[in-house]
Amino acid sequence: MKMCKSRLQCTVKMMVLFNLDVQVIQFNYKLNQIFRPAGFSDPDGFDVICSKTTSLDVVTVPFSRIAPSGSRRMDVAAVKALGPRQNVGELEAKVLSRAALSKIVLVNREECELKEIWVADTTGEIKLTLWDSLISQVDVSKSYCFSNLATREMQGVIRLTTTPSTRVVEITQLDVPDEGRDDPDDGAASTTLRGVVSGVQIRARHRCPRCHGLQNQISANSITHRCDACNLLQRSSVYGLTYRGTIVLTADQQEHSLTVTDSCINAYLARYRVAYSENDVETIEEHFLNLPEVEICVNNDSLITSLIQPLSQNRVDQSLVAANDDNTVTDGEAAQVVEDWEAAALV
Ligand SMILES: [Zn+2]
Q1: Which Gene3D superfamilies does its entry note (predicted)?
Q2: How many separate helices (H) and strands (E) can be counted in the chain?
Q3: Which of 50, 184, 231, 263 is the Cys-Cys partner for 54 at CB 3.0 to 4.6 Å?
Q4: 100 vs 185 pLDDT, higher one
């Protein structure tokens, strides 16, 4: 429970009641005999503790009931007015065409990929951190309904992050101006290189949907698999596949050793409808090696942020059919592990 500055208005964030013989459904209650703990968890409010002597009275209050923020659709202005670590049930927003910051960070000693983008609606704009498989589901200048996001605070500014239960659904284009200006302090600067792939190494590993730990191996014949990291036994099918690799690009007689991420590989494979089977990374490697030329955007960390065939080479081989529908995002049902998982992004 969180009390606001005014004593009259209090916002119930979460309430856990034990052994109380009442139906707690949409009534206003007054809690008697509660006390305030010594430590404050939130500078804007405080927790209250109920004891055996606490009782509840049904009362009337001079303000209307407001649903918890996580259960309703919000706009950007309302999200920015929230504090940190709040849930955002739904947000419809357009992805702005600004440079996005891509990073690989260690979470629980495992590499995770993140991308910071800007989204906006008619009430404002806000930064959103996309994680792992969600990165390749979002395109610049398109509009989406993002569900189950959470707020974070960085340098006094509220921003959004995806959680393991976030879903992204494309919607009709929102009428939001997109000036395309870049923030020079964003760290999202990138360089474009055009050349030939002279070497490539890609590794495919399964990731646990619950703890996001990478798996050493999942037996192809086994229906279940015990996570190497969290030890949970789950159906093998829930472990999504993640690619990671190195591309050596020869451009202007110089060799560049560049990191290629899962989102970048998935975006490429989908765009050019490359046929591949899930564990057959050699097919993907040979595809890159056989390209006459590639155009690569690379950021200051030697991380490839986009990989395309230059326009002159841009052709889709119609004989190839995307073979792999199993490679879709796994349902991240577990919201609890997200704390550790995302904390690294805010370092
Ligand atoms: Zn796990």
Answers
A1: Nucleic acid-binding proteins
A2: 4, 18
A3: 50
A4: 100
Pairing of strands 2-3, 10-11: antiparallel
CA 213 to ligand 1 center in whole angstroms = 5
Give the distance (Å) from ligand 1 centre to CA of residue 109.
13
The answer to whether the pTM exceeds 0.85 is no
Q: Measured in angstroms, how far is the CA atom of residue 234 from the centroid of ligand 1?
A: 9
- The reply to whether 164 falls in a domain is yes
Same domain, 42 and 79: no
d(CA 281, CA 295): 21
Same domain, 130 and 105: yes
Residue 175 shares a structural domain with residue 290: no
State whether 200 and 325 are in the same domain.
yes
Report the separation in Å between the CA atom of 228 and the middle of ligand 1, taken as the mean of its atom positions: 7
Q: Residue 84 belongs to what domain range?
A: 69-186
The predicted model gives 53-65 an average pLDDT of 76
**Any domain includes 347:** no
Q: String of b and e for 77-95 (b: at least 16 CB within 10 Å)?
A: eebbebeeebbbbbbbbbb
Strand partners, 103: 114
172 lies in the same domain as 74: yes
The CATH number linked to 88 is 2.40.50.140
pLDDT in tens, 223-264: 999 999 889 999 999 998 899 999 999 999 999 999 999 989
Q: How far is the CA of 107 from the centre of ligand 1 (A)?
A: 13
What's the domain count of the chain?
3
Alpha helix (H) residue ranges in the chain:
76-80, 262-271, 281-290, 338-343
Find the mean pLDDT for residues 321-341: 38
How does residue 10 score in pLDDT terms, banded at 50, 70 and 90? very low
